[in-house]
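User: For this week's homework, look closely at the record that follows, marking any run of repeated tokens, and judge whether sequence predicts the tokens.
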Amino acid sequence: MEQKLWTKEFIVTSFVNFLLTIMYFLLMVTMSNYAVETYHVSVSTAGLAASIFVLGSLIGRLLVGKFIAKFGILHVLVSGLLGSVLVSICYFFANGIEMLLLIRMLHGFTVGLVTTSTGTICVQITPPSRKGEGISYYGLSAVLGSAIGPFIGMLLTSLNNGFEWMFALNILASVVCILIFKFVRIQLPESETSVVSEKTKAFRISDYIDKQAVPISLLMLTIGFSFSSVTSYLTLYGKETGLIEVAGYFFFIHSMCVICSRPFTGKVIDARGANIVVYPCMLLFATGMFVYSQSTAPWMIILAAACMGLGFGNFNSAAQTIALKNADPSRLALATATYFMFLDLGFGLGPYILGHIIEGLGYRSLYMIISCIGLICIPIYYLIYGNKEKRAFASS
């Protein structure tokens, strides 16, 4: 008998992740534009206003294992959401770029606590035999959020007081999530708490990072670093190319392609391994970036969005499955945090560093370079994991 996946806990956790992702992308794709219009800063500084959120999230993920061990996962969840409400209120009072950067970093910290906790719950409650499928479906909640968030954000930027509406919606979403999680009653296994608490007596890097998850997480860092150039500069690139209207639909198209493919790819990963999914996805990602770099017409933006949706979207879930595959059950929270810490680091460093490249070379040259990086990642994946899985299937 097939183990049940769609439990009440799985549905509620996925819905909360959906709301948080809407708010993340709503602000991420508009924040650089907000910084330029409101504080008249450079492109690289505007990118930092977007990406410093992710660096704050990275710090939150680094510490979340300790917090969960000490206070329990639901307490960390609710505390993170309460912190998100308080920090989001501060957006209304940011009177300079320095204050905005501080608010963004603190906001990222609170969201890092929450999303790592919800991700850990998902992994804990998903049946082992359906792990790839479960992670793929859970990831779809983020995909839907990434489709709706940018669309709402770019719509609101055309309205008077649009950014104030964004900040208010962020507060509302956090409050709704707090209320929703009053209905969830899940704790991490006792083994998770004991392992972490025993190691809090002395500093060890293994308290914060699961070494088994590091290789694939480093590759995800590179891909996330590359894709951050799209999430942070979509609005500005759309304005420069005269394709701002179709750019508003980029993440919708991107997400629809992921939604249509992920249920299938998740089952394929469970049945036949990750390689059969990863190689085509990485090639599609590189192709999408190349088309995006050459975009001169709406159909090219649409094609690029579809390629990157199929590529980045499915590689993300496949890489997460690989990161968790060999993790000890007592370290699933740590493996989850490790994966997302590296992903956050890529998304956090990307917009600021790539913003300097944009100032020197322009958008099109940057996206050409990133397309080449995507191709280089294919043999890197083979070396760190692909060849191992190939040998494992050959010997079975």
